[in-house]
Amino acid sequence: MSINKRTTIFTSVIISSVLLSGCGLLGSEKKEEIDPPKTVTYTDDGTVTEESVAEEGVDQEVAEETIGTELYLFDKNGYVVPQTLELPKTESVAKQAIEYLVQDGPVSEILPNGFAAVLPADTEVNINVKDKTATVNFSNEFKNYKPEDELKILQAVTWTLTQFDSIENVKLQLNGHDLNEMPVAGTPIGASISRVNGINIDTSEVVDITNTKAATVYYVAGDEGAYYYVPVTRRVEENNIEGLVAELVKGPSYNSPLINDFAHDVQLLDEPKIKDGKVTLNFNESIYGSFEEKVISEHVLNSLVLSLTEQKGIESVEVMVNGKADLVRENGEKLAEPVTRPENVNTGSF
């Protein structure tokens, strides 16, 4: 159900402006405003009207506001991967995010190289959010997917929606009827699903699933100059900080195209300490990997932060070596403060 409101927002007036942007795997785009702001009104039908003029006698161009949104797409290896793309600013952010998962839809013009939309072409969607649960009603075209893509589609929809603070669980409908299982291959859904159900599930090296717990860690994928992070849910004996770190050090499955940047002999010297949302990790010197003393790989650091902040109650990660917090990042900056989870993951197109 759409909300028909006129929304007044502020945007910059650009005159031969220069946008200074920082684009990275975990960064966010920053724009420098050259001229004073002006008020512009955006309506649901796409109309843009000027309410005021910043400077008289000057031709002005209104820049459309966008917002970085994580879309979970298929990469070239078949993984479900978040890509942060700039979408038009709207009040119906959840509905728009799912609409941008549709093949041959508006996402087609901004898809990063090697990535594909996950929902069948012409799929229409409506979303209702209540009590932290998003009910997604798909049109009949939703059924036009390959059986082998079913679980990945379910994961892509769930993780795309649960990026928003107002959504923790997802329910699916087809033409207004509740789905307790997916319509093609019958993957169970139940009353609702959430991130607890996992993503890119890997049980290839598990002997006894009953005595293990699910844990999601982030590995590296891609090629030189085009790396990105992939969430993978694996089975661990203990779903705790030590268990997650051990999975990162262990690395992805042997036959996986994913990359491991951790040295095989990385170890925690002390039990992780958690206080006020910060987890402190004390490693041996192997955390430096192939770098010279005190330099930590960005991939190692980012994988740690992304993996650990998926855990409830953890907001930042402090890394120490032999009890000292005097590490240096690859860019030469001191790692003086705990690292928080980035607002956007895998930003930009490569």
TrEMBL record:
The superkingdom of the source organism is: Bacteria
Alphabetized Pfam families for the sequence: Germane (PF10646)
Q: Which InterPro entries match?
A: GerMN
Q: Where is the GerMN domain?
A: 94-183, 241-330
- UniProt-listed PROSITE patterns: PROKAR_LIPOPROTEIN
> Which protein, by its recorded name, is this?
Sporulation protein
Organism, by scientific name, is Robertmurraya kyonggiensis
